[in-house]
Each structure stands twice: as C-alpha cells, then as structure tokens.
Design goal:
The structure is a single chain. The protein is mainly alpha-helical and 310 residues long. The protein has one domain: MetI-like fold.
Length: 310
C-alpha cells in the first residue's frame, strides 16, 4: 500500500482531490439539467394535462392532445399537418440549394484566383446578420408595389409587377432566396476547410491522367467530402425544419397560411390561443419527425460508406 502511494505521489496523482474534475463539469451539468432535461420532462407533463397557470387544479388528460393531432375535423389536425407540409416543402427546396451551392462556391473560391478572399468574405458576411435584418431586407426587395424586384420588372424589363408577398407559391420565393443568401456562407466555410484537407497529390495524378476540372470535381472532390456533406446536410435539414423568422417577418405566414411553418403554428397555438398543452404535444410530435429524418440520413450515409468499402 505504501509502495502504491509512493508511486502515485511520483506520478502526481492525488486521490484526495479526485473530485476536482467534477467541479469543472458542474456548471455545464447544471445548465444541461436546467435548460434541457427539466424542460424536456416538464414538456411531457404539460402535454398530458390541461395546463393553465392561472387555474388551481390541472386535470390529467393523458394522450388527448396527441389524439387531437390525428383526429380529422379538429383545428389541431388541420393546421398542424398543413403547416408541417409547408415546412417539408421548404426543406425539400432549400436543402439541395444550400448544400449544392455551398459546395460549388467553396470549390470556386478555393482555387487560386485573384480576389478570392474578397469573395469568401462577401459570401460569408450575410451569415452574421440577424434573421430580422435579412427578413426585412428581402421583404422590401419583393414588396408588391415599390419593391426592387418589381421596379426592375416594370421599369427596366417592361414587364408587369408580381404580388410576391400575397400570392400563393410566389410568396415562397423571397423566403427561399433570403434563406439561401443568409445561410450559404456558413456551409461554404465548412466545405472550404474540408477541401483543404484533401491531398493535392490526388489532383496532380488525375491531371497527369488527363482528367479535366469537372472530372476532378466529380471523381475526387465530391467523394472525398462525403462525411462533410453528411454533416452539412444534417445540420441544414435541422435548420430548415426550424423555419420561423423568415416566414413571420416576410409574409406573416400568408397568404392563407401557405407559408406558415409548423413552428409558427405551435407558437400561435401556445401564446396566441393559450393552448399550452396542445402546443407541447405538437412540439414533441414534430421533434420525433425531425429525429426520424436525421436517422434516415445517417442510415443512408452508412449504407453508402459500406458499399464504397466493399
């Protein structure tokens, strides 16, 4: 025993203070418990009662609020699935644009061209703006009467103005383009770092074999960035699912809820209709849907990686 103590002293190990690392973890653990674990279980509790902070009694209703989401004829069923479909449509359009354009821009500005640092900064800078700033900017650009886009259409091109913000379908244009302009720089930066880790010898060997720029991009760059693409795709999908500020500030969710996202409706149900329990149930169902999408993406990537190894 004494021999072990001498060895431990020589190695700088002090078992009397072995609790010290836990003190460093304590602040994070408190925040984790207070802002993630507690809200999670408290949200489950709220979704299974008829929550009203002003009432003395809170009746337990079980899965009633979840049942309303899947029962035809209820407002929750109608509007939740409608806004979820809106959100899925936005994800289906925005994610390929955000991932593909980021990869293309990263490949272009990585090359030793004049002013590439300037272009990197230009593409990245919109990402430092808040959602309110970019939403107001794109709302002004696509305003029905005096917007910049309609001015160009009428005064420069001689066409007719388009009621972008009050026409179903067209109202998605400023939301998608504004999100693309705002977010593509972050994904581009991730791809830039990943491209820098690809060995230059691969491109030199491909060039000696007569491969052009497009062949090098499709046969070397894209396959070597598969893990990065998975990360970018997953984070972009999760970010697109959380669409809120752009729809709220550009179109207000209109016309006729055609651009209202599911998070907008959950917020309306909770703080507009004061139906906190119903909103909590919607949030959990929506969270499970996001988890399923993420799991499918990881499964598809693992399957593709296994094929490559074989």
């Amino acid at each position: 025993m004494r021999r072990e103590q001498r060895v431990n002293r020589k190695a700088g190990v002090n078992f009397e203070r072995s609790w010290t690392p836990w003190l460093y973890l304590l602040p994070h653990a408190l925040f984790f418990l207070g802002f993630i674990i507690f809200p999670l279980f408290f949200g489950v509790y709220i979704s299974m009662v008829r929550w009203d902070p002003l009432r003395d009694t809170i009746p337990f209703v079980g899965a009633e609020h979840y049942w309303e989401l899947f029962s035809k004829g209820t407002p929750q069923n109608e509007f939740f699935w409608k806004t979820l479909a809106n959100t899925l449509g936005f994800v289906a359009v925005s994610v390929p644009l955000l991932v593909g354009s980021a990869l293309g821009l990263a490949n272009l500005v990585y090359k030793p061209i004049r002013g590439r640092n300037f272009f990197r900064a230009v593409f990245f800078l919109p990402g430092v703006l808040s959602v309110s700033v970019i939403s107001i900017l794109w709302r002004w650009m696509f305003a029905n009467q005096a917007g910049l886009i309609n001015v160009v259409l009428t005064e420069v091109l001689g066409g007719t103005a388009v009621a972008w913000l009050t026409t179903e379908g067209a109202a998605w244009v400023p939301i998608v383009l504004g999100t693309l302009w705002w977010s593509v720089g972050f994904n581009m930066t991730i791809y830039l770092a990943a491209i820098g880790n690809i060995s230059r010898s691969l491109y030199e060997a491909a060039e000696m074999d007569g491969a052009g720029s497009w062949a090098q991009f499709t046969k070397i760059t894209v396959p070597m960035l598969s893990q990065t693409t998975l990360f970018v795709t997953v984070t972009t999908v999760l970010g697109s699912f959380q669409l809120f500020g752009q729809s709220l500030l550009i179109t207000g969710g209109g016309p006729t809820r055609s651009t209202q996202s599911v998070i907008m409706y959950i917020t309306e149900e909770a703080f507009g209709n004061n139906q906190y329990s119903s909103a909590a149930a919607m949030a959990f169902v929506f969270g499970l849907i996001m988890l399923v999408f993420t799991a499918v993406q990881f499964w598809l990537n693992a399957r593709d990686a296994k094929r490559v190894r074989l």
